[in-house]
């Protein structure tokens, strides 16, 4: 089956896209999409790189990536499956968080893997939903967006449930108390404390020891964790509010909006304004 695309008539951008794949040609170099991306892998195993970190995956899994989040697939053998992309203008996770609680489960979790391991039943269920989305998109008449939205919501809910069950069923690997305190500290202070040294001072531990613990447990540096948390919030503000880049920069602790813009572009690959232009803008109403 060829790629199927639903286009937003207002912006002319992709709203929803379904792309079957039978090899890694779509993902064998670093990819960044201005939408949410999910790879339902029915066959194959290997590793996936998200940002700077590598994660192993096996046949029968879902790989999920946030807006403009860089990823690349490195298969160990032949891979098959389907890529589903959806733009936040088509379905906004933030505005529909009460209906579909996948933000922080499938997407935008600093500390968790992007890989959701699926049972055979989960894989069949998600594959059926993708088939239903594809059938609706192939209708001779204009596809019914309400129907497509309903299918996508069910897909996200089923995938989130599978990811949560995977967490609950896994052998618990409890983070050291220091890292639990660090996670709390980042969530509390990420707008005002931007350097590893700030968190070392706050937790009364050397920066070197804190970085070593982060790398061992999360396979990320403390600098990475701070940056990712800042960028998640910056993206949310750029999409959901009418605030200027200068206002957002100030709220995130940057007095110089140009420094913030350079920082954002270095981490995301596009400037804040281009992010807003390509992802879209929608005032927060939820």
UniProtKB/TrEMBL annotation:
Domain HTH araC/xylS-type: 180-278
Molecular function, one GO term: sequence-specific DNA binding
Source taxon at top rank: Bacteria
Keywords: DNA-binding, Transcription, Transcription regulation
Pfam families found in the cross-reference section: HTH_18 (PF12833)
Matching SMART domains: HTH_ARAC
Protein name: AraC-like DNA-binding protein
